[in-house]
Design brief:
The complex is a heterodimer. By secondary structure, chain A is an alpha/beta fold. Chain A has one domain (about 5-125): Rossmann fold (3-Layer(aba) Sandwich). Chain A is built from five helices and five strands. Chain A has helices at about 15-25, 35-40, 65-75, 90-95, 110-125, and strands at about 5-10, 30-35, 50-55, 80-85, 100-105. A five-stranded parallel sheet of chain A has the order 2-1-3-4-5, with helices on both faces. The relative contact order of chain A is 0.16. Chain B is built from five helices and seven strands. Chain B has helices spanning about 1-45, 50-85, 95-110, 130-145, 185-195; strands at about 90, 115-120, 125-130, 150-160, 165-175, 200-205, 210-215. In chain B, strands 2-4-5-7-6 form a five-stranded mixed sheet, with helices on one face. Chain B is globular, with a radius of gyration of 21 Å. The chains are: A alpha/beta, B alpha+beta. The interface of A and B includes residues 19, 21, 86 and 104 of A.
Chain lengths: ~130, ~220
C-alpha cells in the first residue's frame, strides 16, 4: 500500500513539527508549512498531498480561505480542519465548504489517524 | 443606554475570554503532541533501562491526564464565554450547568464541599438569556458555598416537569445566614435577572439544608 502523503498547515511550528514526527513514525509521508500562503504555494508545485491538515485560525489567511482555494484548484485533495475554537461551529461550517472533517485541538491522536485513513479512502475511491 | 452598555461589556468580556481559551488550547495542543512524541521515542528504546523507561511512561501518562482535564476546563470556559455573545438564544440548561459546575468546582473543593450533579438527559431546550441564567445559578451556588460547612454537599439537578424545565440547587450541611458584604446587592441583582428572564425562583429552608428551585418554560 502506498504511503499516505500529508501536509500540515499550522502557524504553531512546534505543534506541526511534533505532530509530523509522530505520524512519520507511523509510516505517513509528512510535510509541514506554517502559513496559508506557503501552503498554496507548495501544493501542486513541490507538494502533492493526499490529505491536508489545516488549522482554522492563522494570522495571514484563515483556514476557510485556504480551504476554498484548495477545493477549487485541487478538488481531489481531502482537507481535515484543525480547530482550537471552543464552539464546533467553525468545524461544521468548514465541512459545508468541502472539508472532509474537522478535529479539535488538543488532538485525539487515534481519532486523527482514523479520520486521515477515512479521508484517504474517500480520495482513492473518488479518483478511481 | 445602561442595558446596552452592560450587554456590550459582557460581549467584550466574552470575546476576550474566548480568545484567551483559544490560545490556551493551542498551548495544550503543543504540550500534548510533545509529550506524545516523547512517548513514541521512548517506545523505540525498548529493552534499554526498563526502570527509567517505566518512570518516564508514568510521567507522560500524568501529563496526558492533566492535559485532558485542562482541555475540558478550557472547552467549558470557551462555551461559557461564547454565551455572552448572544443576549437571547435557544439553549439546553444542562450545557449551561455543565460549564458552570466545571468552572466553580474549585470554590467547592477548597471548602471540601462535594458538588454533585443529577441532570436529566434529553431535556427540552429553553429560550432565554444564557449568561443571565448562568449568573443566577452562580450567585445561588456561591451563596450556598459560603454557608456550607466543610464536608457539606451541593446537588445540582435538572428535570422536566410538564412544559417547564426545573433546575434545583440543594445545599446540605449549611449554617447561619448568608452574610457576604455584597449580599444585598447580589440578591437585588438576582431578583432583577429572574424578573427579566420571566422565570420563577423558589427558596425552601430546612434544618441545615436549603433548596433553590428555578422554573423555566421549555421551548
Amino acid at each position: 500500500m502506498d504511503k499516505i502523503k500529508i501536509l500540515i498547515v499550522d502557524d504553531e511550528v512546534e505543534f506541526a513539527e511534533a505532530l509530523a514526527e509522530r505520524m512519520e513514525i507511523r509510516g505517513f509521508l509528512m510535510e509541514t508549512v506554517n502559513s496559508g500562503a506557503d501552503a498554496l504555494a507548495a501544493i501542486g508545485s513541490t507538494c502533492f498531498p493526499d490529505v491536508v491538515l489545516l488549522d482554522l485560525k492563522m494570522p495571514d489567511m484563515s483556514g476557510f480561505e485556504v480551504l476554498t482555494v484548495i477545493k477549487e484548484k485541487y478538488p481531489s485533495i481531502e482537507v481535515i480542519m484543525l480547530t482550537g475554537h471552543g464552539a464546533a461551529s467553525g468545524g461544521s461550517d468548514s465541512m459545508k465548504k468541502g472539508a472532509f472533517d474537522f478535529i479539535m485541538k488538543p488532538v485525539d491522536f487515534k481519532d486523527l489517524i482514523e479520520k486521515i485513513q477515512d479521508a484517504y479512502q474517500k480520495k482513492i475511491s473518488t479518483s478511481s | 443606554m445602561e442595558n446596552t452598555l452592560r450587554d456590550c461589556q459582557l460581549a467584550s468580556l466574552g470575546k476576550m475570554l474566548a480568545g484567551y481559551t483559544h490560545e490556551l488550547k493551542n498551548h495544550l495542543a503543543i504540550i500534548n503532541e510533545s509529550s506524545g512524541l516523547m512517548g513514541d521515542l521512548l517506545d523505540m528504546t525498548e529493552g534499554e533501562d526498563e526502570q527509567t523507561r517505566k518512570r518516564f511512561k508514568k510521567i507522560i501518562a500524568t501529563i496526558g491526564e492533566r492535559i485532558s482535564q485542562a482541555n475540558i476546563m478550557a472547552r467549558h470556559l470557551s462555551s461559557f464565554a461564547h454565551r455572552m455573545d448572544m443576549p437571547l438564544s435557544v439553549f439546553n440548561v444542562n450545557d449551561g450547568l455543565d460549564e458552570e459546575i466545571t468552572l466553580i468546582e474549585r470554590f467547592a473543593r477548597l471548602k471540601s464541599i462535594l458538588l454533585k450533579k443529577n441532570l436529566q438527559q434529553e431535556l427540552p431546550s429553553i429560550y432565554s438569556n444564557p449568561s443571565l441564567f448562568q449568573f443566577v445559578v452562580f450567585a445561588e451556588i456561591h451563596k450556598i458555598v459560603d454557608r456550607c460547612e466543610n464536608g457539606g454537599e451541593i446537588i445540582v439537578s435538572s428535570s422536566q416537569q410538564d412544559q417547564d424545565v426545573v433546575v434545583s440547587l440543594e445545599g446540605i450541611g449549611l449554617y447561619g445566614e448568608w452574610q457576604d458584604k455584597s449580599s444585598l446587592q447580589m440578591s437585588e441583582a438576582v431578583n432583577y435577572a429572574v424578573k427579566k428572564m420571566d422565570i420563577s425562583l423558589n427558596v425552601e429552608e430546612f434544618e441545615n439544608r436549603q433548596k433553590i428551585t428555578l422554573t423555566l418554560p421549555a421551548v
